[in-house]
Amino acid sequence: MRYFLLSLLMLLTACVSAPTQDPRELPSGDWRIDPLHASVTWRSRHFGLAWYTARFDDIDASLTFDPLRPEATQLTAIIEAASVSTGNTVFDETLRGENWFSAARHPQIVFEATQIVTTGESTGHAEGFLTIRGVTRPVRMEIVFYGGNFNFLENRDVIGFGADMVLSRSEFGIGQLIPSAIASDEVRIRIEAEFLQEN
């Protein structure tokens, strides 16, 4: 049995090739985020000391990608505000409440890119609009393209990105105590995402 498992592992390893970081080698078309291999985390400074980290557990995103014209990429991402998760159920309910994300009245956080700018072989940024609590503001997302590969488990191509965004929660009416020594106005958002090509 041990030899069988070892052989199976070697076979699976042989099926996985190194990802390509050349966008021209990737197929164009429509892609949708793989929620099992994606995360959105956010950090806020607590008492001016450590960065307190939380996440959103329910995210969806789609993009239309042309490897020959990356600047024409269309990207829309939707986060369910009620999926905010800190590991503390009492605090989670506070964050879902009216003074913070107001999830009952504004259930979705939406980012829609209006322009993609390539800044290097694997870097760029997305200009767009972010809507939280019904408030829409222009934002910039810094992007790193990890490359693409064939996902034999899904039997289709996959591409990966990492992205960062910094915003002021006061601009969206998020939370109380601004200015405050308890929670910083600055919020740092980190996104890790794999997108699967749609069939």
Summary keywords:
8-stranded antiparallel barrel; 199 residues; disordered N terminus; Lipocalin; elongated; mainly beta; single chain; 53% strand
Strand content: over 45%
CATH C-level class is Mainly Beta
Helix content: 10-25%
The sequence of SSEs as H and E is HEEEEEHEEEEE
CATH architecture level-2 label: Beta Barrel
Task: Indicate how many domains the architecture comprises.
Answer: 1
SS-based class: mainly beta
SS element count, helices: 2
Q: How many strands?
A: 10
Biggest β-sheet: strands ordered side by side in the sheet: 1-3-4-6-7-8-9-10
Describe this structure in words.
By secondary structure, the chain is mostly beta strands. It has a single domain, classed as Lipocalin. It contains 2 helices and 10 strands. The protein has helices at 2-15, 89-96; strands at residues 29-46, 51-56, 59-65, 74-80, 84-85, 108-118, 123-132, 135-151, 156-168, 183-197. An 8-stranded antiparallel beta barrel has the order 1-3-4-6-7-8-9-10.
